[in-house]
Amino acid sequence: MSYLRFDKAPMTNLEESLQRELLRTNRSGAYSYSTVVDCNTRKYHGLLVVPVPQLDNENHVLLSSLDVTVIQHGAEFNLGLHRYQGGHYNPMGHKYIREFDCDKVPTTTYRVGGVILRKEVVFQHYEDRILIRYTLDDAHSQTTLRFKPFLAFRSVREFTHENSYASKHYNVVDNGISTCMYPGYPELFMQFSKKNEFVYMPDWYRNIEYQKEEERGYDSREDLYVPGYFEMTIRKGESIVFSASTSEIKSRRLKTLAEKEMSERAPRDSFEHCLINAAHQFHKREDNDDRYLLAGYPWFKCRARDTFIALPGLTLAIGEQTYFELVMKTAERGLREFMERRPLSVEIYEIEQPDVPLWAIWAIQQYAHECGTQRCIEMYGKLVNDIIDYIVDERHPNLYLEHNGLIRTEGRYQAVTWMNSTINGKPVVPRTGYIVEFNALWFNALCFAEELATKQNDNKRAEQLRERMARCHQSFAATFYNKYGYLFDYVGGTSQDWSVRPNMVFACAFDYSPLTREQKRSILDFCTRELLTPKGLRSLSPKSYGYKPMYLGKQTERDLAYHQGTAWPWLGGFYLEACMKLYRKTRLSFIERQMVGYDDEMYYHCLGTISELFDGNPPFRGRGAASFAMNVAEILRTHHLLKEYEKEERRNKQ
After folding, report:
1. Which of 539, 527, 514, 503 is nearest to 583 (CA)?
2. For residue 650, is pLDDT > 80?
3. Cα separations in angstroms, 227 against 70, 89, 248
4. Is the pTM of this model over 0.85?
5. How many CB atoms lie under 10 A from the CB of residue 4?
6. Sequence-ordered strand ranges (E) for 336-489
7. Residue 277 and residue 255: Cα distance in Å, rounded?
8. What is the distance between the alpha carbons of residues 461 and 543, in angstroms, rounded to a whole number?
9. Mind listing the pLDDT tens digit for each residue in 217-244?
10. Do 537 and 568 form a contact (C-beta atoms < 8 A)?
């Protein structure tokens, strides 16, 4: 039995099925994204969504959806599903679904009387091409299929409406047509593996409604253009492949191509395999062979901090050292360009944030664990030294090394940490001065750099680093550790932030910590009592002022709640790592139980991946982006660390 399989009951119940989404990507920035019943509920949904760099840096919905109608004896059964103004659904094609299986490729089986039609969908890697294979598994009489494409040609952040400017022109191509609604967009090629008849019948389908946008307080309706429909007969046992792409293909290749792409997909037959599949979806390869990690889907780009935090989990934890090196090669170029104040040649956002170079060193440290210190020195030893020198020389525009050995940053008027929500341009959480995770990162970076210098017999540099380590070590606890036994979130001038937040956990999780064992135990106890949920750590304790656990409402309401009590799985990863380091085998069963809390997420929200954040109160519902790189990465890394600790325990018993 498949791991991700749903029978008729949950698929035909719209309250359940519309909450489950499915994401497919091509590893070049394009994606296909909708609900499991193919009813779009977000403006980001679409069957073919691609970047159009000649227009902007956003993705654009070209083909919104494709309705399929089964025709027998003159009777028509439309398998599509759309929501129109007022919450009316038409047609009601979901009622024909018999089962849905997402083991290797998403597969939907429809039953209409004696007709059993199977649909399999795959996105071709590194090409803007979605492939859908329809197979008639059973039929007792002649069967015809009709395909009606719904076109948008718009940015994912906008809507399209009926207008007189949209081009209705089309060209006949090999077993299909091509069309382009507006200048600047690429042609959309819609082709089949079988000869068909295209009936030109241009029309606008008005007031299609997107439920999720309505819930979030945005405009929620648009009009979609249908140029006509394709029609062809299909025999029992026959398969027909549909292709939608920005480039033409020989139609005789479609069946072979679809079979090849489907055979190459890794199975999603377990929790771990689902996460590995999700990890690969964040890959992005550019034409110049630069490699990136997208921060999430559907709206995130490649962000520097997210890249370095997610990189070890998305690559090293699943045995993909080569991809780590490819991404780091691109990211290192961007880092050096920023540090040398040269124009950026990479598409990495927020590289100017002050903690970014420190997270880069942390990522390199994980590489050393997996690939060996000597290999790490050869690959990244110079980069580590250059980053340390860059910070020591105070060349970063918003990072200052003080005499007490700690680093300080200005964050009152701009968001400079991962807690970066803003309202009217001002940070909701204005963290400024000595920020706790910045300084935990700084101490860890100094110690790691000293380790590398010692390994290289660079005694002079090692001694200089030890002096800085000692100064930072002495000041850290004196600055952050308070009388109640946890860490201030930040200290600015003479004021301290007493809020109980998860950022103190990093000082317990990193390889090198300026805290004593007793201090780390006390901090972890606070995290366990006040921050821990089945979906990670809360961003603020329920006992602290301003706690807002539910990520709901309009944009301003969600911005206020974003870091004020919502739970984040990636923070939970560092918490569990700290538990392993501090308590070792006595906490392994507890850690395993925590990991079970993520297993259920494979079946909800976006199948096979992890949402951006979760409500801080039960039932801890997933919110935000459908798939978030740092969350997937830290769960994978925790899973990997857990297996390594279990191996170590078995070796110790032998």
Report:
1. 527
2. no
3. 19, 22, 18
4. yes
5. 20
6. 400-401, 407-408, 422-423, 426-427, 434-435
7. 24
8. 45
9. 889 999 999 999 999 999 999 999 999 9
10. yes
